[in-house]
Amino acid sequence: MTVPGERSNTESMQYLGARVKAASAVLANITTAEKDEALKIGADCLVAATSEILEANCADIERAQIAGTPDTVIDRLRLDTSRVDAMGEGLRQLVALTDPIGKIVEQWTRPNGLEIQKVRVPLGVVAIIYENRPNVTSDAFGLCLKSGNAAFLRGSSAAIDSNIAIARALREGITKAGLPEDALMLVTDTSYEAAIEFMQLRDHIDCLIPRGGPSLINSILDNAKVPYVIDGDGNCHVYVDEAADLDLATNVIVNAKMQRPSVCNAAESLVVHSQIAPNFLPRITNALEGVELVGDERSRDLVPSIQPATEEDWSTEYLDLKMSVRIVDNIDEAITHINKHSTGHSEAIISSNQTATKEFARRVDAAAVLVNTSTRFVDGEEFGFGAEIGISTQKLHARGPMGLEQLTTTKYIVNGQGQTRG
Amino acid sequence: MTVPGERSNTESMQYLGARVKAASAVLANITTAEKDEALKIGADCLVAATSEILEANCADIERAQIAGTPDTVIDRLRLDTSRVDAMGEGLRQLVALTDPIGKIVEQWTRPNGLEIQKVRVPLGVVAIIYENRPNVTSDAFGLCLKSGNAAFLRGSSAAIDSNIAIARALREGITKAGLPEDALMLVTDTSYEAAIEFMQLRDHIDCLIPRGGPSLINSILDNAKVPYVIDGDGNCHVYVDEAADLDLATNVIVNAKMQRPSVCNAAESLVVHSQIAPNFLPRITNALEGVELVGDERSRDLVPSIQPATEEDWSTEYLDLKMSVRIVDNIDEAITHINKHSTGHSEAIISSNQTATKEFARRVDAAAVLVNTSTRFVDGEEFGFGAEIGISTQKLHARGPMGLEQLTTTKYIVNGQGQTRG
């Protein structure tokens, strides 16, 4: 068995691209049963290869330790038996999800008798550039396969041994299921140059989804020549209106900030109506015990333990137990502040006043607006999509959590009886 | 009244972008009636300014003539009273179209009681880079306005006087209608540097749609840092299957090739099953009188007047009375050939065999597949969209004719009663 996607000096990234593109043409025309069978066999092969995968993972961990990589990063890299089992389980869970391919999204007949159908079809080749987590290799492959796409994957050099072992096991499964093994193509050249080449393979990549931090995103913006969907930062706000139920507000904010502070849908900024601030701010400060608060002057007059916020704080996604606080005099000021600093991810309002919640929902420009609930719910699983490949913070193609449907496009099929245009 | 979008030496493209972005926030929250009123007043102001517009157009034409511009290009540039009237009529026709904004695309309730709505909202700022036709200034503005978007327009230097006059009239109309005049922002700096700056305004442009030839498209691919939708070439094929009705095939091919050869949905290549080629090829050659045919050896054996095709011909969009011809032995060969050379626009099959037409529709990778009808029908008007901003040949966001709906995105609104994530 060859190393997944290996290329010799005489082979080019173009060649890998052509191979995965060829595989995508096969995947676009198989049945749901064939995809599901490949997912199950892939899961079995993955779990059966646990010892090889963990051995490869040890090599990655060892390199990282020698390089002095921080423990939090090493933790993201580390696999164990239960993590490999979870990857297999993730593939098996996709079997239960509805196959989006072939669905007639719309159909109508024109006055001249032409029958037009808009049908859901795969994108073709979905490329993912990702950072240290090796489970993305398996998760991304599964979502691509179920949606009829070939997966063209480029992980980080830190996880390369793990990724190769995982991809090898999955490619074995794909082959056993009678599908082309290039349905999962892993780029093993993890150089910067290869990454740039990868994101410019316009003939072979239909959609690129980067999963990583700001430097990866910026590299995509600077260099990509293929269509992409950005899964960006979440500088999420919770606005507490003057008509808020303060118990509810407290529960929701504690959840949004503290339940898992390191993720993109965690809240980063608290915006409070001046009318209720004297009552609410001391209370929420107590409830957010352990969270470092920085705020504007008015908030600090009310709660002296709040440290001064700099201008930069309003635009910062802390991903940590830290939160900015700002007092506003009305909902208009809240919306203006949020739209100025939002990254377009998820924004919440706490209010019992329907006029206020409707205005907020209408005017706030974000993928998701939450009314009286936590920003943490903006997630493919929580939305009921079953799984997600990321959360889009752009407006084109997909906005918000991306499930199987967001990995598809449509095709028009026009049935005629010899009509010509006059 | 100021010149639309004029900037002084101390003002930047960023400043123009910030202005149009601010206008977009207003447009996102107005009623259908307000948009329709602005379209009608805009149309009136445009027609009222006919003499100023034609005077400006004369200046453009004169410059073009001095520069030795070809007549066909000058024709695209030229306006007259009836063309200005048609622009006004185009705006008025948008009034009758359904406003896509505010539509609830989907809604569901989660087991925890969260009510999720997916609502259609404007993109925000839609940017268009276009070539010589000055009517795009008015057409693009109208489609953007009706879909709640601000229009950020950058036409060519050749049409700059006409574009300024048109934009000035429309901005007067917008102001009269009580909307921000920056809802139409025309970039009057037509330098190459300004175009590059324009396509990199990531903070201010939500979607860029280039309307022009390959050099513009390549410039977008090389330089753009904003999300874009490519309206690309149409190397459209018609495949005549062995089970084709040859009368129907002849009519459709003549229509697809000859009715308007200069447009992207005209057919450029004829693919014929070898079984019917001896009968059909002489016949279609006669019917395509005036069309220069180039073909493979087998086609030339059957019809000696067909000239030899080079490898390049298979990938060429002639946009002229010229067509390539190829003989294939079965539908699989036809599909493989088409998928290899297609630009993903529109591909047709002529066949009475439903197994063949279904296989073709499933396997051909294009925005539109036509069965027993002309490729010329792939068009926003012909699809019933009322108007179109272009035809997308990419798979992300929009594929095929782009009407009002393709100028929108969605937003999730999640209504809760205090739910928190466990």
If you had to describe this structure to a student in words, what would you say it looks like?
The structure is a homodimer of 422-residue chains. The first copy, chain A, has 422 residues and is an alpha/beta fold. The first copy, chain A, folds into two domains: 13-230 and 402-413, Aldehyde Dehydrogenase, Chain A, domain 1; 236-382, Aldehyde Dehydrogenase, Chain A, domain 2, CATH 3.40.309.10. Chain A has helices at residues 13-27, 32-48, 50-66, 71-77, 81-95, 135-146, 160-176, 192-198, 214-223, 246-258, 277-287, 297-302, 331-341, 354-363, 380-383; strands at 104-109, 115-122, 125-130, 150-154, 184-186, 207-211, 236-240, 267-273, 292-295, 307-308, 322-328, 346-350, 368-371, 390-392, 400-402, 408-415. Chain A has a seven-stranded parallel sheet with strand order 10-9-11-8-7-12-13, sandwiched between helices. In chain A, strands 5-4-3-6 form a four-stranded parallel sheet, sandwiched between helices. At the A-B interface, helix 10, helix 14, strand 13 and strand 16 of A face helix 10, helix 14, strand 13 and strand 16 of B.
Q: Describe the biggest sheet of chain A?
A: 7 strands, parallel
- Low-confidence sequence ranges of chain A: none
- Count interface residues per chain for the largest interface: A-B, 64 and 64 residues
Name the strands of the widest sheet of chain A in spatial order: 10-9-11-8-7-12-13
Alpha plus pi helix count of chain A: 15
CATH-assigned homologous superfamily of the largest domain in chain A: Aldehyde Dehydrogenase, Chain A, domain 1
